[in-house]
Write a structure and sequence with these properties.
The complex is a heterodimer of chains A (435) and B (276). Chain A has 435 residues and is of the alpha/beta class. Chain A is built from 18 helices and ten strands. Chain A has two domains: 191 residues, Periplasmic binding protein-like II (D-Maltodextrin-Binding Protein, domain 2), CATH 3.40.190; 216 residues, Periplasmic binding protein-like II (D-Maltodextrin-Binding Protein, domain 2). In chain A, strands 1, 2, 3, 6, 7, 8, 9 and 10 form an eight-stranded mixed sheet that branches. Chain A has a two-stranded antiparallel sheet with strand order 4-5. In chain A, helix 17 packs antiparallel against helix 18. Chain A is globular, with a radius of gyration of 24 Å. By secondary structure, chain B is mostly helical. Chain B folds into two domains: 53 residues, no CATH class; 167 residues, MetI-like (MetI-like fold, Orthogonal Bundle). The relative contact order of chain B is 0.14. The chains are: A alpha/beta (435), B mainly alpha (276).
Chain lengths: 435, 276
């Protein structure tokens, strides 16, 4: 008996010892978006499978960018995996800051990743980050208000129609605004929206010699149209509204239409959060009559490994797990198909279970329609739709969007804002040596 | 002769003081209210928020998803550690400047204060690189030192002002009785300055507790205090006001309660030197 117990104890100790000897811990920096929170919830399954422990560091988006940029540019080695966006991936890949993901195993099926996503997360043909979820933007509108206004939303509407519909749906007495759009300063907030919108008016940020193009009629038309429509039918104080503010307005039934990230579709149709969950329809982001480009963008939240981590293999294993087809199945089985991370894999949109989700078709169409390599009507020297994938862009676009927001708020005219944007951009590009 | 204060004037003063107090306190009160609501209710107009059912769900979710106690422990270690360390350095420094001032003492004091005027982000990279070199990233030790350094000017200034109020003759008397420098500081000066040291300690614990630049930028998983805990509930895509509020309440409650109990000391600390 004693021997048996001793043997058991010894075995237990050995197992424990072996466990601690091999247990590896990786640290992942991420943002607090719904799909990321869900991923943290299922991480214990990854640990059970592989014996690799995971530490999560969740930060606010801008703090995360600053934090991760500091760490990666100084080779601080605090993180083994970072959550980055489509803007950072090609720039950091080019700088040699990220580990290339070119040896993913065949069962991962890298060709299943949507081509637009793969293109946006690569530099020079090498994939540097695996998309966890992707998004484009589209119109979300209130079917009941549209009907009341006696209009029918086409699948591919023009800006002219949107402005007319917005005016018709606006009901100031009942606090219903025909249209809610981002106006908030910041390159990823209002800046992203107006840049994507300008593409659909035939505008562009730079010509092929990196000259700013804010003095063109196309930009003037974009801004005048935006401000005119929002003054007519937008919510009060739209110049300070971003994604979350508009989400809140829409969920409270105060917006007739909202053009924003496709990922919002699952929020506004969720009856636990939204008062209008059963009255939402979807359509492609608008375009100006006669212009082939639409106002939809393309973005991905992706997982990347910083160069210099000591735990590259463990980090790769995690990325393979979290962005795999199996992970999607896992979430679907536990939380339903409406809650799986969207926009990353082709197979998801071929799945018959997913096809029943009301917003799935329009999300896929929007993503497929986005072309970061050719974002504008006239040729441009940059890649990216709502941004230009150069390191200087975030700073410049934040300043430019501040000027635009000041124009929305009526503190200056559209012409003044555009003139300042032109000067800011040209100065910065000259200082950076592009011109 | 003191001017008589009429009842009307008194009432008016009280009213104004309460209004200002409530205005300043309102955001915290609203965070408190939102933390007991569901996510769906938290975004409703204010009156409807108040009418919506109260629940502890947000707290339960936050408790389940994050390691509150771990962050809390880090906050306590960092704020107390940095303040105590700061006092150990600052007491002798303030003693020297208050009782044996040199020609440049005023300049030194100004120079120390001027370091507080530099935007922190300006030295982020140098400090980050130093931390890498010394292996201090994401460690409580490293962060304690940084927090101590950034609060040191304030600690020295506060102590300096207190020490100046103590008559130098008392120290001279102690010296006459044969007290050495150590005895003088430990047995004469410190006991007399206890109220001042206590206010300094309290105020700097609060400053260190609320510090949200270095604590976010120099930590990852291990040494992150409650500021990182709050930051993890802010989201670019999705409304989590109720959970964010619950996390905020949990983060500020300990320091708020501490402040409540030590109000007297704090007010003295904050208004030191105001009336001479």
């Amino acid at each position: 008996m004693f021997l048996k117990n001793a043997l058991r104890a010894a075995t237990a100790l050995t197992v424990l010892g072996a466990g601690s000897a091999f247990a590896e811990t990786i640290t992942i920096a991420t943002v607090n978006n719904g799909d990321m929170i869900r991923m943290q919830k299922y991480t214990h399954l990854f640990t059970e499978q592989t014996g690799i422990d995971v530490n999560w560091v969740t930060l606010e988006e801008n703090v995360l960018r600053q934090r991760v940029t500091t760490d990666i540019s100084t080779k601080g080695g605090q993180f083994d995996i970072m959550t980055i966006g489509m803007y950072e991936a090609p720039i950091w890949g080019k700088n040699g800051w990220l580990v290339p993901l070119n040896d993913l195993p065949p069962e991962y099926d890298v060709n299943d990743i949507l081509p637009a996503m793969r293109g946006g997360l690569s530099y020079d043909g090498t994939l540097y980050a695996a998309p966890f979820y992707g998004e484009s933007s589209m119109i979300m509108y209130r079917t009941d208000l549209m009907e009341k206004a006696g209009l029918e939303m086409p699948e591919d509407p023009t800006w002219g129609f949107i402005r007319k519909a917005a005016a018709a749906m606006t009901d100031r007495e009942n606090d219903i605004n025909g249209i809610c759009l981002r106006g908030k300063a910041g390159w990823g907030e209002g800046g992203a929206f107006i840049t994507a919108m300008s593409n659909s008016f035939g505008a562009r940020w730079f010509d092929m010699d990196w000259n700013a193009q804010f003095d063109t009629p196309a930009w003037h038309e974009t801004l005048t149209f935006y401000k005119g429509m929002m003054d007519e039918s937008g919510p009060k104080g739209y110049a300070t509204n971003g994604f979350n503010e508009n989400l809140s307005l829409f969920q409270q039934g105060k917006c007739g239409m909202w053009i924003d990230a496709t990922v919002a579709a699952s929020f506004v149709t969720n009856p636990d959060e939204s008062t209008v969950a059963d009255k939402v329809g979807f359509a492609l982001a608008p375009h100006k009559e006669g212009v082939s480009k639409h106002a939809n963008w393309l973005w991905a939240w992706a997982l990347a490994i910083p160069a210099g981590t000591q735990k590259e293999d463990a980090a790769k294993k995690f990325i393979e797990w979290a962005t795999s087809k199996d992970y999607i199945e896992l979430v679907a089985a536990n939380e339903g198909w409406a809650n799986v991370p969207p926009g990353a894999r082709t197979s998801l949109y071929e799945n018959p279970n997913y096809k029943d989700i009301p917003f799935a078709k329009m999300t896929l169409k929007s993503i497929l329609m986005a072309d970061p390599q050719h974002p504008t009507v006239d040729p441009v020297p940059y890649v990216g739709i709502q941004f230009a994938a150069i390191p200087e862009f975030a700073g410049i676009a934040t300043e430019v969007s501040q000027e635009f927001a000041a124009a929305y708020a009526g503190q200056q005219t559209v012409e003044e804002a555009l003139a300042k944007a032109q000067a800011i951009t040209n100065d910065a590009m000259e200082a950076a040596g592009y011109r | 002769m003191a001017r008589a204060v009429t009842t009307r004037r008194k009432t008016l003063n009280t009213l104004v003081a309460w209004t200002i107090g409530l205005l300043i306190f309102f955001p915290i009160l609203w965070i408190f209210v939102l933390s007991f609501k569901s996510e769906g209710d938290a975004i409703l107009p204010p009156l409807q928020v108040l009418a919506a059912p109260w629940s502890l769900d947000s707290y339960a979710v936050v408790q389940e998803r994050s390691d509150y106690l771990g962050h809390f422990y880090n906050s306590v270690v960092l704020s107390l550690g940095s303040t105590v360390l700061g006092l150990i350095v600052a007491v002798p420094a303030a003693w020297a400047m208050a009782f044996v001032p040199g020609k440049r003492t005023k300049d030194v004091l100004m120079w120390m204060l001027s370091t507080k005027m530099l935007p922190a982000v300006g030295v982020l990279y140098p400090i980050y690189l130093l931390f890498i070199q010394f292996g201090l990233l994401d460690s409580r030790l490293g962060l304690t030192i940084v927090l101590m350094l950034i609060n040191l000017p304030i600690i020295i200034w506060m102590l300096y002002t207190y020490f100046r109020e103590i008559p130098g003759e008392i120290l001279e008397a102690a010296r006459m009785d044969g007290a050495g420098l150590r005895e003088e500081i430990l047995y004469v000066l410190t006991p007399m300055a206890v109220p001042g040291i206590a206010s300094t300690l309290l105020l700097n614990v609060i400053l260190a507790w609320n510090e949200a630049f270095w604590t976010l930028n120099l930590t990852a998983a291990k040494a992150a205090p409650l500021t990182a805990f709050i930051a993890s509930y802010s989201s670019p895509e999705g409304l989590f006001y109720a959970k964010l509020s619950a996390a905020s309440v949990m983060a500020i409650a300990p320091i708020l309660i501490m402040g409540w109990f030590s109000q007297k000391q704090l007010v003295r600390g904050l208004t030191f030197g105001a009336v001479k």
